[in-house]
Amino acid sequence: MCRWLAYSGSPVLIKELLLEPQHSLIDQSLHSRLGAETTNGDGFGIGWYGVGESPGVFHSVEPAWNDRNLRDLSAHIRSPLVFAHIRASSGSPVQLTNCHVSTLRHQHPDNPVLHQLSDESRVVVSEPLGDLAGAWNEVPESSYGVIQDGRDELRPFAPRPPS
């Protein structure tokens, strides 16, 4: 199962999302706690918005935990909108074309990262980034989330075959 992360909120260094949490996306690529496979090493990609109208993109067929450029870039890129994907191949080739909160502040006053974020900041991940109580809500099977200003929503997902 692929690992992914989506973030929207106050600008943050990408390394604060991908590398620094206890069970970061990079850690998940080596030691997944959820899903069939514990290791995802079939490439990765990140996209972010900074200056300009188009997103920045970086991807590789190397394992994310082993890519020095990812570590270096993520320490220098600050963005309010980030998407990261760590690929677990399901049999397709490993190649470049296949690489794709105020309550918490109160509960965890000693966590400096939480004090840098706006109330509308969100990180959407495939499994928890750490053991921060109250920071992760599972999205049940056959549902999807709507991330929006104000209250986020979970809705049922029922695909229909084309007519």
Mean pLDDT: 77
Strand order of the largest sheet: 3-2-4-1-5
The largest pleated sheet is described as: 5 strands, antiparallel
Output the CATH topology. Glutamine Phosphoribosylpyrophosphate, subunit 1, domain 1
Instruction: State the fourth-level CATH superfamily.
Output: Aminohydrolase, N-terminal nucleophile (Ntn) domain
The helicity comes to 10-25%
Low-confidence stretches: 92-100
Q: What gap, in angstroms, lies between the N and C termini? A: 30 Å
Q: Per the principal axes of the C-alpha atoms, what is the gross shape?
A: globular
Strands, total number? 7
Tally of helical runs: 5
- Portion in beta strands: 25-35%
| CATH class group | Alpha Beta
Order of helices and strands: EHHEEHEHHEEE
Radius of gyration: 16 Å
Count of distinct structural domains? 1
Overview of this protein structure:
- It is built from five helices and seven strands, in the order E-H-H-E-E-H-E-H-H-E-E-E.
- A hairpin with a 6-residue loop joins strand 6 (143-146) and strand 7.
- It has helices at 14-18, 25-31, 68-74, 102-107, 112-115, and strands at 3-13, 44-49, 56-60, 78-86, 122-125, 143-146, 153-156.
- The chain has a five-stranded antiparallel β-sheet.
- The protein has 163 residues and is an alpha+beta fold.
- Helices cover 18% and strands 26% of the residues.
- It has a single domain, classed as Aminohydrolase, N-terminal nucleophile (Ntn) domain (Glutamine Phosphoribosylpyrophosphate, subunit 1, domain 1).
